[in-house]
Amino acid sequence: MSETIFSKIIKREIPADIVYEDDDLLAFRDINPLAPVHVLVIPKVEIATVNDIQPEQAELIGKMVLAAQHIAKQEGIDEDGYRVAINCNQHGCQEVFHLHLHLMGGKQLRNLAGH
Length: 115
Ligand code: 5GP
What we know:
22% strand
């Protein structure tokens, strides 16, 4: 897999507004936020897309969701609610091919039908 901008963020070669880090994960604010809170949670290991997740990485994916839960509480949006989403490939509008979970909240989001 070719290196992405997110690998450079992990290696601190380019800056990011980091809100959470542990041995396996990094989370930082999206550079083009679509909501008052828009954080990306990424694994430090390079996984290109949801299609590339291996069964033995199930715990890692679970940790990504738990990190989103933690950050939502940290950001004070847990009670009002939020969305977690992962885009995959072209039809999913994935632009960066390093697996990432979007955590979005801080306002009333549109439903998936766009209302
Ligand atoms: P995707 O469309 O692949 O699911 O989402 C990629 C996200 O990464 C987009 O929301 C985009 O704004 C964000 N992004 C792209 N480049 C950078 C960057 O250099 N820094 C940060 N913080 N976010 C980025």
